[in-house]
């Protein structure tokens, strides 16, 4: 037990002496101390209570003053605030090499609703459904009458007619917001390059237009950069050529019963892509959603020319031949024995339809497209040098084209480069590249041996990079390519276009099965890689058809010579004049007769 | 002789209850409270009609309910205000235990009425929110504990009341009902302040609150959005805040006229949290200032009267009740004029409410009981030579 001191001790001791009860004294003392403490506490509380009372009074006074200020202010029409800073709406145009508009902006309006301001939500929903058939009246009515909704978008872009019709509903809860929309006036032409755009950050008063694919996305920041001040982005594309190429390729694809097609037309000196087509295509004004099923490579969104990696077959043979000439291993006239058997790593190398060409020159190897011939040339070159050469042509890396999809076109090359790889790759099997890769590599052969960088931006003057082949070698190679087309037994004899001296190489590759395990017997990728005119090459053209079959003969024909070549020839016939190429006829060929009636 | 043998006939000491009550009660505050109640009915005539219409009831259904519950609340208030402080304390302790148990069982037996927070017991014809009843009785119990803690050799009452407060605040925060939790916290803080909290500790606490607020702002999106919305000088006119502000502006000094207001049709909480906006729109600034003056009178008068109070229990209890009553009104009106961030809180006695009205009646009844005039030993003070 704790001892509680007796207080006041003196009086208690005194009381004890007198025999009085000390408890009473202590009690009295406690009461007094208690009183005193209470008084002290009350004094302190008095001050604090006064402070509290004043604080409360001041708070009420402030509220009252604020009420007064609000009441005294003039009522103004309530306005929804713009969210944040105003969104930069101007986006630079995109034009072709001659300044023709490919993508521009148009003022339009978006439609949104404030359901709580609506007078007749039901009627508004019905009338809107009449104006916009894709909207569902019942669903809209449900959303308009949902008390939790204060705001909802109805349409992101309106035509002037639709806007007037919505005005005529007379519903105050339907409101318009100004919009800049991206317009692609040429519709599906050049769709894969342009890509498409959509709205990014959206406010009532404006919305940000952002690129979602293609060059719109690749240059999104640049196009939106206010410092650009609306300077259009000039592409290397020639709109007229592009339109013609698309038209021809589309007809060709239909005629050859192909499920897809791609074409690349490149200026061999600058690397500028003059025209690039991938079919099927789409309308960038109304870009379809990405497919959720099926192979993405069959979607219209898929850019076959840039993203699609295919075994491009015999078109590769010219690389082996050119390199052999460059290394001085052979001349065009060096004879190579192409008769069977030719076994590499236990595999027999065969020829198309089991031909046996016998001992033929390097030139003839290309003209007749002998697999065994190129295989032997490649073995003479050796794997390392072959790899270096193909790499220097840019066939091992994704193309640096200025669209976002380009990085997706990564070539497939064997992990282990065996002798068999060396042989098969020499005739374009076991390596998958995009048609754009091929066009770039052919440009190097056509322009005198300089590599170029494929680009979609307009260039001025030649843009040569490294030298990989000598003038003489490219002249010989071009001569071979020319003969593939011009000689009667060349594989691309259908590719002759009078006046333009087309040279090129066909390639027909069986399609590998998607699940692996060999190749389809009846599905091919047919490619024709051409340069024209061969006496002074200006352009390289690659036309690729996916699963073509030509059925005019007794049995279906799938080789490039029967499918891709005629299409490419027709394309050259159409676009060469548009490109300003003057046809040059050999005097002997000129059979114009000036006949007078007798 | 009979008297000498059997003792005197027992007579009640002192004067009769009613005259004594009338003589000692704070008649000004009582008048203010009755006026507030009348204002509540008057505004209910305007503000609750849309709600009744929405629920498919007779236009003045909620006014009738308000009058019914208000009548009960007034009876409860009068009865409570007639009690002596000791009886108030006893009943409050019993009430506290009941309300505390009710609060504790809310998570199991309560209903959330689809509002996302379990705060109510449904009684069929009416609902019952334990926290409304808990507030006044908690204050009384805390005041008792704090006062007892100051007795010589008394229990550590302040600590006990602190622990109870923390438990209740946590329970309320879990519902979640941060509004009521902060009211409980605030009233306890005011009592502690009046009870002689050291200034250093108070300053430290203020610092903690600021730090906590900063942390909440950084950590919670919801909280940050509220504060940003509050700090943003532009009001989105489609929010409740926007409607309320516009209603006050529309009302001007003398209002748009009885029944002419439009804000009550747009605001879902026009009859409770934003009733002051309805008042401002229909009756103008005059009405709002009158309502403000009523609250200010009750609160300030109560504090002033408590300054003279000698009994610490009465002083703390009265302070807590006046503070919680005053601050609730202050928050409600401060939100409507955007002096405070949006927080749903009813305007005591004016907002529509069922059982909460009765709880409010009991609370002000207790306040009136505690602020009644009592002999404060003035003669002793005079004899000891004034007030020192």
UniProtKB/TrEMBL annotation, chain A:
<dbReference type="GO" id="GO:0005886">
    <property type="term" value="C:plasma membrane"/>
</dbReference>
<dbReference type="InterPro" id="IPR005311">
    <property type="entry name" value="PBP_dimer"/>
</dbReference>
<keyword id="KW-0645">Protease</keyword>
<protein>
    <submittedName>
        <fullName>Penicillin-binding protein 2</fullName>
    </submittedName>
</protein>
<dbReference type="InterPro" id="IPR036138">
    <property type="entry name" value="PBP_dimer_sf"/>
</dbReference>
<dbReference type="GO" id="GO:0071555">
    <property type="term" value="P:cell wall organization"/>
</dbReference>
<dbReference type="InterPro" id="IPR012338">
    <property type="entry name" value="Beta-lactam/transpept-like"/>
</dbReference>
<feature type="domain" description="Penicillin-binding protein dimerisation">
    <location>
        <begin position="87"/>
        <end position="224"/>
    </location>
</feature>
<feature type="transmembrane region" description="Helical">
    <location>
        <begin position="49"/>
        <end position="69"/>
    </location>
</feature>
<keyword id="KW-0472">Membrane</keyword>
<dbReference type="InterPro" id="IPR050515">
    <property type="entry name" value="Beta-lactam/transpept"/>
</dbReference>
<dbReference type="Pfam" id="PF03717">
    <property type="entry name" value="PBP_dimer"/>
</dbReference>
<dbReference type="GO" id="GO:0008658">
    <property type="term" value="F:penicillin binding"/>
</dbReference>
<dbReference type="GO" id="GO:0004180">
    <property type="term" value="F:carboxypeptidase activity"/>
</dbReference>
<keyword id="KW-0812">Transmembrane</keyword>
<keyword id="KW-1133">Transmembrane helix</keyword>
<keyword id="KW-0121">Carboxypeptidase</keyword>
<keyword id="KW-0378">Hydrolase</keyword>
<dbReference type="Pfam" id="PF00905">
    <property type="entry name" value="Transpeptidase"/>
</dbReference>
<feature type="domain" description="Penicillin-binding protein transpeptidase">
    <location>
        <begin position="262"/>
        <end position="553"/>
    </location>
</feature>
<dbReference type="InterPro" id="IPR001460">
    <property type="entry name" value="PCN-bd_Tpept"/>
</dbReference>
TrEMBL record, chain B:
<feature type="transmembrane region" description="Helical">
    <location>
        <begin position="316"/>
        <end position="337"/>
    </location>
</feature>
<keyword id="KW-0961">Cell wall biogenesis/degradation</keyword>
<feature type="transmembrane region" description="Helical">
    <location>
        <begin position="159"/>
        <end position="178"/>
    </location>
</feature>
<keyword id="KW-1003">Cell membrane</keyword>
<keyword id="KW-0573">Peptidoglycan synthesis</keyword>
<feature type="transmembrane region" description="Helical">
    <location>
        <begin position="91"/>
        <end position="109"/>
    </location>
</feature>
<dbReference type="GO" id="GO:0008360">
    <property type="term" value="P:regulation of cell shape"/>
</dbReference>
<feature type="transmembrane region" description="Helical">
    <location>
        <begin position="283"/>
        <end position="304"/>
    </location>
</feature>
<feature type="transmembrane region" description="Helical">
    <location>
        <begin position="67"/>
        <end position="85"/>
    </location>
</feature>
<protein>
    <recommendedName>
        <fullName>Probable peptidoglycan glycosyltransferase FtsW</fullName>
        <ecNumber>2.4.99.28</ecNumber>
    </recommendedName>
</protein>
<keyword id="KW-0472">Membrane</keyword>
<dbReference type="InterPro" id="IPR013437">
    <property type="entry name" value="FtsW"/>
</dbReference>
<keyword id="KW-0131">Cell cycle</keyword>
<dbReference type="GO" id="GO:0005886">
    <property type="term" value="C:plasma membrane"/>
</dbReference>
<dbReference type="GO" id="GO:0071555">
    <property type="term" value="P:cell wall organization"/>
</dbReference>
<keyword id="KW-0808">Transferase</keyword>
<feature type="transmembrane region" description="Helical">
    <location>
        <begin position="121"/>
        <end position="147"/>
    </location>
</feature>
<feature type="transmembrane region" description="Helical">
    <location>
        <begin position="349"/>
        <end position="370"/>
    </location>
</feature>
<keyword id="KW-0133">Cell shape</keyword>
<keyword id="KW-0132">Cell division</keyword>
<feature type="transmembrane region" description="Helical">
    <location>
        <begin position="28"/>
        <end position="47"/>
    </location>
</feature>
<dbReference type="GO" id="GO:0015648">
    <property type="term" value="F:lipid-linked peptidoglycan transporter activity"/>
</dbReference>
């Amino acid at each position: 037990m704790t001892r509680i001191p007796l207080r006041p001790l003196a009086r208690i001791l005194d009381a004890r002496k007198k025999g009085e009860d000390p408890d009473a004294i202590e009690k009295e003392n406690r009461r007094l101390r208690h009183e005193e403490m209470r008084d002290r506490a009350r004094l302190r509380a008095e001050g604090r209570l006064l402070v509290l009372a004043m604080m409360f009074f001041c708070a009420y006074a402030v509220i009252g003053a604020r009420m007064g200020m609000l009441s005294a202010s003039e009522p103004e029409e309530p306005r929804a605030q713009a969210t944040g800073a105003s969104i930069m709406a101007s986006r630079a145009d995109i034009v072709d090499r001659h300044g023709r508009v490919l993508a521009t902006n148009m003022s339009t309006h978006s439609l949104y609703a404030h359901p709580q301001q609506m007078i007749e939500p039901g009627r508004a929903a019905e009338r809107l459904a009449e104006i916009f058939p894709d909207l569902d009246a019942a669903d809209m009515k449900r959303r308009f009458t949902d008390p939790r909704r204060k705001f909802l978008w109805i349409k992101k872009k309106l035509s002037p007619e639709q806007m007037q019709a919505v005005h005529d509903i007379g519903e105050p809860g339907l409101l318009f917001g100004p919009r800049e929309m991206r317009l692609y006036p040429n519709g599906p032409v050049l769709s894969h390059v342009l890509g498409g755009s959509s709205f990014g950050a959206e406010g009532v008063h404006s919305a940000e237009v952002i690129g979602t694919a293609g060059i719109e996305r690749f240059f999104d920041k640049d196009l939106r950069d206010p410092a650009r001040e609306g300077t259009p982005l000039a592409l290397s594309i020639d709109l007229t050529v592009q339109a013609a190429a698309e038209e021809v390729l589309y007809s060709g694809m239909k005629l050859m019963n192909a499920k897809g097609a791609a074409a690349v037309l490149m200026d061999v000196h600058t690397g500028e892509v003059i025209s690039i087509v991938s079919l099927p295509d789409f309308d960038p004004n109304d870009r379809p959603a990405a497919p959720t099923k099926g192979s993405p490579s069959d979607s219209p969104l898929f850019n076959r020319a840039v993203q699609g990696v295919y075994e491009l077959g015999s078109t590769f043979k010219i690389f082996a031949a050119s390199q052999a000439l460059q290394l001085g291993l052979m001349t065009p006239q060096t004879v190579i024995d192409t008769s069977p058997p030719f076994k590499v790593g236990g595999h027999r190398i065969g020829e198309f339809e089991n031909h046996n060409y016998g001992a033929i020159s390097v030139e003839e190897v290309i003209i007749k497209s002998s697999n065994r011939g190129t295989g032997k040339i490649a073995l003479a070159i050796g794997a390392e040098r072959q790899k270096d050469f193909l790499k220097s042509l840019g066939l091992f890396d994704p193309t640096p084209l200025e669209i976002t999809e380009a990085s997706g076109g990564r070539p497939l090359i064997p992990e282990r480069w065996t002798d068999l790889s060396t042989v098969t790759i020499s005739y374009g099997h076991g390596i998958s590249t995009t048609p754009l890769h091929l066009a770039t590599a052919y440009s190097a052969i056509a322009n005198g041996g300089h590599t170029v960088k494929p680009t979609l931006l307009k260039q001025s003057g030649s843009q040569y990079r490294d030298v990989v082949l000598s003038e003489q070698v490219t002249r010989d190679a071009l001569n071979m390519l020319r003969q593939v087309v011009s000689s009667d037994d060349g594989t691309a004899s259908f590719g002759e276009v009078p006046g333009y001296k087309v040279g090129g190489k066909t390639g027909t590759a069986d399609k590998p099965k998607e699940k692996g395990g060999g190749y389809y017997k009846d599905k091919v990728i047919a490619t024709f890689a051409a340069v024209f005119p061969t006496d002074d090459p200006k352009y390289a053209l690659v036309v690729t058809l996916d699963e073509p079959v030509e059925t005019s003969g007794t049995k279906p024909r799938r080789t490039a010579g029967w499918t891709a070549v005629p299409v490419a020839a027709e394309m050259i016939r159409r676009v060469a004049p548009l490109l300003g190429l003057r046809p040059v006829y050999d005097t002997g060929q000129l059979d114009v007769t000036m006949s007078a009636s007798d | 002789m009979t008297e000498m043998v059997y003792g005197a006939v027992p007579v009640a000491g002192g004067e009769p209850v009613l005259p004594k009550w009338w003589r000692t009660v704070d008649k000004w505050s009582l008048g203010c409270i009755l006026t507030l109640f009348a204002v509540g009915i008057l505004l209910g005539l305007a503000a609750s009609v849309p709600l009744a219409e929405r629920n498919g009831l007779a236009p003045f259904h909620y006014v009738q309910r308000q009058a019914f519950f208000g009548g009960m609340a007034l009876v409860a208030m009068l009865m409570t205000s007639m009690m002596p402080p000791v009886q108030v304390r006893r009943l409050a302790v019993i009430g506290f235990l009941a309300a505390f148990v009710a609060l504790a069982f809310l998570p199991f037996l309560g209903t959330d009425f689809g509002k996302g927070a379990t705060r109510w017991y449904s009684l069929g014809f009416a609902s019952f929110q334990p926290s409304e009843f808990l507030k006044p009785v908690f204050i009384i119990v805390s005041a008792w504990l704090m006062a007892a803690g100051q007795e010589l050799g008394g229990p550590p009452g302040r600590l006990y009341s602190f622990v109870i407060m923390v438990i209740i605040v946590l329970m309320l925060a879990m519902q979640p009902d941060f509004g009521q939790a902060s009211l409980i916290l605030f009233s306890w803080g005011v009592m502690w302040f009046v009870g002689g909290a050291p200034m250093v500790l108070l300053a430290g606490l203020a610092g903690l609150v600021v730090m906590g607020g900063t942390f909440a702002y950084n950590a919670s999106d919801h909280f940050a959005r509220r504060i940003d919305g509050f700090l943003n000088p532009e009001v989105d006119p489609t929010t409740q805040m926007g409607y309320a502000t516009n209603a006050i502006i529309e009302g001007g000094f003398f209002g748009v006229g009885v029944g002419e207001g439009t804000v009550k049709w747009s605001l879902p909480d026009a009859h409770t949290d934003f009733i002051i906006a309805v008042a401002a729109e229909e009756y103008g600034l005059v009405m709002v200032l009158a309502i403000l003056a009523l609250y200010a009178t009750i609160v300030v008068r109560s504090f002033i009267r408590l300054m003279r109070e000698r009994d610490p229990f009465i002083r703390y209890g009265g302070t807590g009740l006046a503070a919680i009553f005053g601050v609730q009104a202050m928050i409600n009106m401060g939100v409507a004029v955007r002096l405070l961030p949006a927080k749903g809180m009813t305007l005591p006695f004016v907002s529509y409410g069922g059982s909460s009205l009765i709880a409010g009646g009991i609370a002000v009844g207790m306040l009136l009981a505690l602020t009644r005039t009592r002999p404060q030993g003035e003669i002793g003070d005079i004899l000891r030579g004034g007030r020192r």
